[in-house]
Amino acid sequence: MARDGDINEPTREFPGYPTADSLPARSDVPPGSTPGGRGAPGGPVKRLLLVLGAVALVLVALLGVQTTGIFPDFRNPFGKEQTDRSQPPLLKSIQDLSRYVAAEGNFQVVVDLQKDRNNVPEWLLNQRTLFVGAGSVEAYVDFSTLSEGALVVSPDGKSVEVRLPAPQLGETNLDLESSYVFAEERGLLNRVGELVDGDPNRQRQVYRLAEERITAAARDSGLPQRAEENTRKMLEGLLRSLGYERVTVTYTAP
């Protein structure tokens, strides 16, 4: 039996249980492991994710610095680069021109070209192209064909007559930047044929048709007559400034 004075003191037969403060620190427990000896679940995976996240944040910060212009000299290591290995232009010829371009017409034409076969369904064999072509045609007077008698001055020196060839139309200049394919339909066999043996110049025919239509429209538009009038006004102003009172400009048939 314990004595009354020592009732709160542990007896020798029943020593007090150790507390957390009295336990010695264990130095053999590896970091990231529980005192029981088992590692924390997902420890290495979490550390790898943290490292990848940090790298991603650094890249985003570097790209943001470049785009915002804080450090303009900073070069993005993953930026796009373009290398031009084109050869220098080669001058093949120089041609002296003696044309006076007196008028120019700008035209637009819609070409609807379809190629199919009789008694064959369109879904099987068909090719239809709707092309919008834009181009220009110049009307000019060729001064290189003028002879000595093209300029006749009156005896009193007050009038002059100029004989010129009739204006001509230049070649149609198809503007590819303003021209485009509006719609295109192809049959099943046409699509298969393009996959096997594609034709990079299959649009050449619609280009040629567009040029022919624009050339015909230029002839019917009165462009040569406008060139005659503009050339006449130009020569009248020039020769009158030289002292001639009367200026006559005539055109010969081409």
SSE arrangement, N to C: HEEEEEEEHHHE
- In angstroms, what is the radius of gyration? 46 Å
Regions with little confidence, pLDDT below 50 for 5+ residues:
34-40
The average pLDDT value, as a whole number, equals: 75
- The portion of residues assigned to helices is 25-40%
Number of strands: 8
Q: What can be said about the biggest beta sheet?
A: 5 strands, antiparallel
State the helix count: 4
First-last Cα distance: 147 Å
Percentage of β-strand residues: 15-25%
Blueprint (SSEs and pairs):
Blueprint: H1 43-68, E1 99-116, E2 126-142, E3 151-153, E4 159-165, E5 168-169, E6 173-174, E7 180-186, H2 188-196, H3 204-220, H4 223-241, E8 246-252
Parallel strand pairs: 4-8
Antiparallel strand pairs: 1-2, 2-5, 2-6, 2-7, 3-4
Describe the structure in your own words.
- It is a single chain.
- With 254 residues, the chain is α+β, with helices and mostly antiparallel strands.
- The chain has a domain of 154 residues.
- The protein has four helices and eight strands, in the order αβββββββαααβ.
- Strands 1, 2, 5, 6 and 7 form a five-stranded antiparallel beta sheet that branches. It has a three-stranded mixed beta sheet with strand order 3-4-8, with helices on one face.
- A hairpin with a 5-residue loop joins strand 3 and strand 4.
- The chain is elongated.
- The relative contact order is 0.13.
- About 3% of the residues have low confidence.
